[in-house]
Every structure is written in C-alpha cells, then in structure tokens.
Write a structure and sequence with these properties.
Number of helices: 1
Helix content: under 10%
Structural class: mainly beta
Distance between the termini: 21 Å
Shape: flat
Strand order of the largest sheet: 1-2
Number of strands: 4
C-alpha cells in the first residue's frame, strides 16, 4: 500500500461490494447501504468509487453501467 501512496502515478484498486447492516427498533438486522469490502482490509478510503451494474438491453444481452461516487473530502 505504501508503494501506491508514495508513487507519482494513479492506481486503480478493485474490490467487492459489501453490505452495511444495522439493527432497527425491533431488534432485527436490516441492510442500510453498501460499502467497499476492501475498506475493512486496507487502512485507506478511496477518493473515487465506481460501482459496476449490469443491465439487460433489448436483445437480451447485458450493458455494463458504471456509477461513480466521490468518497473522500475535497482538498
């Protein structure tokens, strides 16, 4: 990780999506959101997060769409 942080280049880190679960008033666990699974495994948060989602097209195939979120505070 220090090589990525200290280098003079951009890097892309791929990770899996994990669910954020919280307990509601009834004591049941509910899914309240999603997060990058790598956040628990690495000490750094990404500056930009891209979520890839497949969608069906008219011909029955798939189109991969990417939604980007800015996660780090602005400098």
């Amino acid at each position: 990780m220090s090589l990525l942080l200290d280098g003079s280049f951009h890097a892309i880190i791929c990770g899996r999506e994990g669910m954020v679960m919280e307990q509601d008033e009834d004591g049941e666990m509910r899914v309240t959101g999603t997060k990058l699974k790598a956040e628990g495994e690495t000490p750094h948060e990404p500056h930009l997060l891209g979520r890839m989602c497949p969608e069906r097209d008219e011909k029955g195939g798939y189109i991969i769409k990417v939604f980007f979120e800015r996660t780090a505070p602005e400098f």
